[in-house]
Amino acid sequence: MWNKSMPLLMLPENTKDNPNFSRNIFCPNNQRCYQLKLPQTFGARCWGSSCGWIVTLDLNQDLYMFNPLTKTRIPLPHLSTMPGYEDFPEKDDMDFYELRGVFLERVLVIQVDDRGGDYILITIPGQPNGIITYAKPGDLVWTSVITREIHIEACVKDVVRWGSQIIFLYADGVTGYCDINACNHSNLEATTLMKYLPPP
């Protein structure tokens, strides 16, 4: 039996041609695999979170927040609404798998507060000078995070919420931050990412 506090790991697809297959979900607490029918994840790139949501990117470049237990699916802004998408010169010559690797290395679900219910999604691009973006469920476009005082070629490796701030960890050891309220209340205004701590 599952409960809300148990971590679950969704394993990769075991088939490429049947959308009605069962996904294997591993529960480390029970040391067991469970099978769930999740056609909503078929063929999609999936990113998990600690909030119970999976973010999916399907072949149509549509993004969703998806809860594998309740089957709730919330649409997110399309991949093409990310800043820099239209200006990327090679996108028309790339297949879906290459394209998503350039624009999305990871998508993280950040809870706005400890009560839950409100979320901000942060994207980490797959290229060093890519644009970090954010959106909330219900937004129509992704909004850029402007980097100040941090080397433009630095690559973001991880993001976490700490109190009222979102902390960004860069590959070169620098940490940056922005206020979570700036992301939560303004969809079309770019949020500024400032240097938090120098390396190491």
Automatic annotation (TrEMBL):
This chain's source organism reads: Spinacia oleracea
The record, for InterPro entries, names: F-box_BR-signaling, KIB1-4_b-propeller
- Specify the protein name: KIB1-4 beta-propeller domain-containing protein
Which Pfam families does the entry mention? Answer: Beta-prop_KIB1-4
KIB1-4 beta-propeller domain segment(s): 29-189
